What we know:
It is built from four helices and nine strands, in the order ααββααβββββββ. The protein is an alpha+beta fold and 195 residues long. Strand 4 (110-116) and strand 5 form a beta hairpin.
Amino acid sequence: MRFSTCKQLLGGWLMISLLLGCKDTGKNPASEEKQYFPVADYVRSQLHVIDSLQLPVTLYRSGENRSDTLQLSTKECLEMAAPFQDPDITDPAVASKFTETSFADQSIPSVTFNYSTKDEKLPLKRVDVVLHPDPALAEKVRTIYMEKMYSSGDTLIEEKLFWNNDHYYQILRTSRIGAAPPTLSQVKVVWDPTE
C-alpha cells in the first residue's frame, strides 16, 4: 500500500511539473525583441579606443568654395561622431520600424547586414554593416554606412555617413532650401596615421 501511495505522489508531481513546464508564457515569437547589430555600441567602442590611446585626430573638411585640414581634440572627435549613434537601432522602439536583410559575399569574404525603414518620420533611413567573417575569432566590422534625411526649419538635409573600422569616419551632407541648388559639405575625421 505504501509503494502504491509513493507511486501516486510521484506520478502527481510528474504531471504538475509537466503542466507547469509546458505552460504558455504568453510570448509571441513574432513579437520578441529584434536583435540588430549594435551600431551605437560599436561606435562608442571605437571612440573609447581613440580616447584611451589619445590618438592624434585630423579633420579634413570641404564645402562650398573652401577646404581645410586641422587637428582635432579627442573631445571634438567624439562630438562629431554623434550622428553615428542616434538613433540607436537596437532600441526596441526604433528596431520595430526597421527590417533586416543579410547576405554573404564569398568573393571578398564578407557578410552584410542591411537595415531599412519605410517610416517617413524617422531621420535614419538605412544602415549597412559589413563584417569580415572569421571562424576562429569573432567577426570583425569592416565598415558601417548610414543614410539619413530630415528637415531643419526650411532646410532639407541628407547625410551619408561612413565608418571605416580603426581608420576614419566620414560625413557627406547635402542641404537644400526650397528650389535653391543644394550645398554639399564633407568632413572626414582620421585617427589612423597610415590613412
